C-alpha cells in the first residue's frame, strides 16, 4: 500500500514537472518572438506584395540599417525604403518608413520623378 502511494506521488510529481516545463517553454518562446525584429528583406517583400495588388513595380529598395523613430510619445525602430512604379506612363516613387518589429508602414510619401 505504501509503495503504491509513493508511485502515485512520483507520477504526480512528473506530471507537474512536465506541465511547468511546457508552460515555461511556451512563455519564453512568446517573449523572444515578441522582442525580435523582422528582417529588412521580409518587410520589403510584404510592402511589395501590397503594391503589386495595384500594378507592376519597376524597382524597390530598403535600408538595412534601423533608425530610431519617434511618433508622438511612441518610440521604436524602423527601416526606410522605397518602391518605384509606372502610373499614367510616368515613373512614381513612394518612400516609406516601416516598423522594424511589426513591419507596419508608419509613413509613406509619393514622390513624382
Automatic annotation (TrEMBL):
Transmembrane intervals: 12-32
Keywords, in A-Z order: Membrane, Transmembrane, Transmembrane helix
Superkingdom assignment: Bacteria
KW Transmembrane (keyword) present: yes
Name the UniProt record assigns to this protein: PepSY domain-containing protein
Amino acid at each position: 500500500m505504501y509503495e503504491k502511494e509513493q508511485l502515485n506521488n512520483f507520477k504526480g510529481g512528473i506530471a507537474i514537472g512536465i506541465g511547468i516545463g511546457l508552460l515555461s517553454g511556451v512563455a519564453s518562446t512568446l517573449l523572444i518572438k515578441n522582442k525580435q525584429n523582422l528582417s529588412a528583406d521580409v518587410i520589403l517583400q510584404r510592402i511589395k506584395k501590397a503594391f503589386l495588388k495595384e500594378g507592376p513595380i519597376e524597382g524597390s529598395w530598403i535600408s538595412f540599417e534601423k533608425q530610431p523613430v519617434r511618433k508622438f510619445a511612441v518610440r521604436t525602430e524602423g527601416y526606410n525604403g522605397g518602391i518605384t512604379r509606372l502610373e499614367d506612363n510616368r515613373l512614381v516613387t513612394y518612400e516609406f518608413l516601416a516598423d522594424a518589429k511589426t513591419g507596419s508602414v508608419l509613413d509613406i510619401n509619393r514622390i513624382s520623378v
